[in-house]
Specification:
There is one protein chain. The protein has 432 residues and is of the alpha/beta class. It folds into 3 domains: 225 residues, Rossmann fold, CATH 3.40.50; 78 residues, Tyrosyl-Transfer RNA Synthetase, CATH 1.10.240; 80 residues, Structural Genomics Hypothetical 15.5 Kd Protein In mrcA-pckA Intergenic Region, Chain A (Roll), CATH 3.10.290. It is built from 20 helices and 13 strands. Strands 1-6-5-2-3-4 form a 6-stranded mixed beta sheet, with helices on both faces. A 5-stranded mixed beta sheet has the order 7-13-12-9-10, sandwiched between helices. α11 links the parallel β5 and β6. α10 packs across α11, α12 crosses α16 and α15 runs antiparallel to α16. It is elongated, with a radius of gyration of 26 Å.
């Protein structure tokens, strides 16, 4: 399948400056870029959309140049914001850069495992474009090619200027000059001819193509391609930075949480997300969707999607662990047999997701009533008694009927006790 056709079928094209770019990048051996401002030490799920767009170019043996926007990160992009934002110091930006680079390398390794493709990837820091340049040289070089009229016409700027309750600092106003100069430098010194990014960034992106055109003439070609803001079947944005962000770092967002996020995908969005967030062939996607439609209640499509995403972002082991935890909390399998087969890291992950406690080492038996309150599944012994009377408490999937019941060390399975209140509230108690 041709590049343009595949990108369109995956829902990853919104606009482009010239269709010649698809022929050029079909030939292999070209460079393209998109940038990430290092304003956090982890990318988020929203960044993953742009990343998958890049992967579709990379799998055709094109080189992805990932620009770490150290310079632009110190200024911030005004797009989608209503006020100036907090500046980050240099040390923090450098630290974030290292973390993001390591994260992308890890994801590409996982994708290679899943797809068999070998991806070409370079990292550059746009601070290197500016560190030896004076402000006078920058304005003589970048400022001469872009008019103020052009800058004021950009939608992101117009919104901030025309609304009396908003404002835009000169710092933010200059952001598009920096982004444009990034492209000019990459084009001139590194033979990068294409920039890809979100549709709401088009104004900043074409600032770079305009600089290139004016400096080198119409015979020199550079390109911009944008992909749409992803929405679900209800029209809600798939990802938004002000919302509860899902990070691609397991220390910030657990693999299980991400797994469940995609398990909650609506049936209407399964096919769309499989095309965007995976490299599965379209006939494979069609097969998954057809299988899913036969018994939607089994959530086969969501399981395939969630497993692929978590494997891509966090690794095969994290995906397997997420499936185990999901089976214990929501599945129909024998929960105790699943716990018996769990590794120590699996147990730790399950306890992290469910909460719970560890019991004192020097005891050989405990009151079950006390364990329920200590675990946090009930607030008091009085509440435990009421729950027992209403047949709502379980330990190791056995209904609790006796307020005086004791628990002994041999009752623990794989050194843990599984508590449950009602149908879905679990806690894990460790006999440490």
């Amino acid at each position: 399948m041709k590049l343009r056709e595949e990108l369109e079928n995956r829902g990853l094209i919104y606009q482009f400056t010239d269709e010649k770019l698809f022929d050029l990048y079909e030939k292999w051996g070209q460079k393209f870029y998109c940038g990430f401002d290092p304003t956090a030490d982890s990318l988020q799920l929203g960044n993953f959309v742009s990343f998958m767009a890049a992967v579709n170019f990379m799998k055709r043996n094109n080189t992805f140049v990932m620009i770490i926007g150290w310079a632009t990160g110190m200024i911030w992009d005004p797009s989608g914001k209503t006020s100036d934002r907090v500046m980050l110091d240099e040390n923090l930006l450098r630290s974030n850069e290292k973390a993001i680079t390591k994260q992308v390398q890890h994801i590409l390794e996982n994708l290679k495992f899943l797809s068999g493709y070998d991806f070409k990837f370079e990292v550059m820091n746009n601070y290197d474009f500016y560190k030896s340049m004076s402000i006078f040289e920058f304005f003589r070089t970048a400022g001469r090619y872009i008019t103020v009229n052009n800058m004021l016409s950009k939608e992101t700027v117009k919104k901030r200027i025309e609304d009396p309750e908003m404002s835009i600092t000169y710092t933010e106003f200059s952001y598009m000059l920096l982004q444009g100069y990034d492209f000019l430098t990459l084009y001139e010194k590194h033979k990068v001819r294409l920039q890809i990014w979100w549709s709401d960034q088009r104004g900043n992106m074409v600032t770079g193509t305009e600089m290139i055109r004016k400096k080198f003439g119409n015979e020199e070609e550079s390109f911009v391609m944008t992909f749409p803001l992803i929405t679900d079947s209800t029209g809600k944005k798939f990802w938004k930075s002000e919302w509860n962000a899902i990070f691609l770092d397991p220390n910030k967002t657990s693999p299980y949480f991400t797994y469940q996020y995609f398990m909650n995908t609506t049936d209407e969005d399964v096919e769309k997300y499989l095309k965007i967030f995976t490299l599965l062939d379209f006939d494979v996607v069609a097969g998954i969707v057809a299988n899913h439609k036969q018994n939607p209640e089994l959530r086969y499509g969501q399981k395939q999607l969630a497993n692929y995403l978590v494997t891509t972002v966090y690794g095969e082991e994290a995906a397997a662990q997420s499936i185990k935890i999901s089976e214990i909390l929501f599945g129909q399998w024998d929960k105790l047999q699943l716990i018996k087969a769990m590794s120590e890291s699996d147990i730790q992950a399950l306890q992290k997701e469910t909460g719970g406690c560890s019991l004192a080492k020097d005891q050989k038996e405990w009151k079950l009533l006390d364990i329920f309150t200590q675990s946090g599944l009930a607030e008091s012994n009085g509440e435990v008694k009421k729950l027992i009377a209403s047949w709502s408490l379980y330990y190791n999937e056995v209904k609790v009927t006796d307020v005086q019941q004791m628990v002994k060390a041999e009752d623990f399975i794989n050194w843990v006790l599984l508590l449950r209140k009602g149908k879905k509230q679990f806690k894990l108690v460790k006999n440490s």
